Amino acid sequence: xxxxxxxxxxxxxxxxxxxxxxxxxxxxxxxxxxxxxxxxxxxxxxxxxxxxxxxxxxxxxxxxxxxxxxxxxxxxxxxxxxxxxxxxxxxxxxxxxxxxxxxxxxxxxx
Length: 110
Hints:
single chain, mainly alpha, 2 domains, 2 helices
């Protein structure tokens, strides 16, 4: 038979564990939504960019080969730079989450 103090500590431990599980669930749902939104953004941008004409009447012009946009060379580099930045931030966040998850597993094993 547990004393009142022991029951209280067990209840507090259980409540803390339930709170951590809920926070983990919310974190996983948020990460899933963020991944889905990123994937949708990439798909939409790919569809839009593939629908743009490659040369739009400038078939003989020199210097437009590096641009993915017909009229403005810098716009293509700007979009690629922004997408690269977003990818870098996403990978960094993923690495931090994986490290935290690994530390939590390590702490639970002790």
